[in-house]
Design goal:
Number of helices: 17
Pfam families: Nramp (PF01566)
CATH architecture: Up-down Bundle
Helix content: over 70%
Shape: globular
GO cellular component, one term: plasma membrane
CATH superfamily: Amino acid/polyamine transporter I
CATH topology: Amino acid/polyamine transporter I
GO molecular function, one term: cadmium ion transmembrane transporter activity
Radius of gyration: 19 Å
Structural class: mainly alpha
Organism: Enemella evansiae
Membrane topology: Multi-pass membrane protein
């Protein structure tokens, strides 16, 4: 049963997530752990809505939106997700190249090109979704082990980390909080889950099993890894008040603890998160824009593959143009994704209340949490806009 939510989790846990988590820990200690907890809980609820839509609708999610709410809204949703995948592709391209460059040497941009070619080759498989799913589950498992080991090495102050579960907003942390919410409460990733459910052929009869084996662990995994990164960053960089504004400073997070081995652990985590997110991001963007434009909802369709290629090429192009401050570039790109998230969040809630879902429709408590989630998305979007204008 495991699969679709782990693909979503791999997409969610990209280099933008890693970079923003390191900055959160190095700049504000354990104070922003609560953002990850709240974001992860909301992500589980919205992913569950998408799972039920995938099981209960006879057609794809965007096609259902077209049928129920009108074609323009469905097309707008697909274009919105495509915009988000373009933003994510920047962090994926930067992270994959830098991570492998730190491990193996050579120019980061050359490794970015190599990773892009490998991802494109994976997307050319006939049964592309199943291949993507298996690759991503393996990478997520390996990253989880790496980050748990890193947390053990760091020996953080766990009592202080527990205090970080209490909501607080340190001065100057607003944009970083927006980036954390945008990467951990990833509505676009939740939106795509319904497509994975369709690809796997899950039905109403599988709902309970899928929830326990896939939805909950698949979304918890990136949330736990992100929290561990904040904890380690707070334990290491937080001791000196140092901020991580460059990739080398990000790698230095483990240097005081484990020397070159620590830096290698970070480089593996960075390249793994970037590569897995690159695969899922290109797949999702290609599938949903293809569906919106009438090219079909299959990852193996011609339109989907063309769009996926465009997303990959965009990541390389922006990486070539902006090479001055890659961490700032990654976090800014991630934060911009919340501008589209309110539309996708509202659509998930509206569609999850449609009559065609029958017993899979939202209950009152689903809608209560959904309203909280939509308000949170809108608040982060408004805060981002006011910050940019200010």
């Amino acid at each position: 049963m495991a699969g679709p939510a782990f693909v979503v989790g791999a997409w969610q846990f990209g280099p933008g997530n890693l970079a923003s988590a390191v900055q959160a820990g190095s700049s504000y200690g354990y104070a922003l752990i609560w953002v990850i907890v709240v974001s992860t809980l909301l992500m589980i609820f919205f992913t569950d809505m998408s799972v039920r839509l995938g099981m209960g609708s006879p057609v794809s999610l965007i096609q259902s939106i077209k049928n129920e709410l009108g074609r323009p809204i469905g097309v707008l949703a697909g274009i919105g997700v495509f915009f988000i995948t373009l933003m994510f592709s920047v962090g994926n391209a930067v992270g994959s190249g830098l991570g492998l460059s730190m491990l193996l040497g050579g120019a980061p941009i050359l490794w970015t090109i190599v990773c892009t070619i490998v991802v494109f080759a994976i997307l050319m498989f006939r049964n592309v979704y199943r291949v993507v799913e298996r690759v991503l589950i393996a990478i997520v498992a390996l990253m989880a082990i790496g980050f748990v080991v890193s947390a053990i090495i760091a020996k953080p102050a766990w009592a202080q980390a527990a205090a970080g579960l209490w909501p607080a907003m340190p001065s100057g942390s607003e944009i970083l909080v927006v980036a954390l919410v945008g990467t951990n409460f990833s509505i676009n990733a939740a939106f795509f889950t319904s497509y994975g459910v369709k690809e796997r052929g899950h039905t109403r009869a599988n709902y309970s099993d899928v929830t326990l084996v896939d939805t909950i662990p698949g979304i918890l995994a990136p949330g736990i890894m992100t929290a561990l990164v904040i904890v380690v960053a707070a334990a290491v960089l937080g001791r000196t008040g140092q901020e991580a504004s460059t990739i080398n400073q990000l790698a230095a997070i483990f240097q005081p603890l484990a020397g070159p081995v620590g830096s290698a652990l970070f480089a593996l985590g960075l390249s793994g998160s970037a590569f897995s997110s690159m695969i899922a991001n290109a797949t999702a963007g290609g599938v949903m824009l293809s569906d919106a434009l009438g090219g079909g909802p299959s990852a193996g369709g011609r339109t989907a593959r063309v769009v996926s290629a465009v997303i990959l090429l965009w990541g390389i192009a922006i990486t070539l143009v902006f090479q001055g401050s890659p961490v700032a570039l990654i976090i800014t790109a991630q934060a911009l994704t919340v501008l589209v998230a309110p539309l996708l969040g509202v659509l998930l809630v509206v569609m999850s209340n449609r009559r065609f879902l029958g017993d899979l429709r939202n209950r009152w408590w689903h809608n209560l949490v959904a309203v909280i989630g939509v308000v949170a998305i809108c608040a982060t979007s408004v805060r981002l806009v006011t910050s940019l204008l200010g």
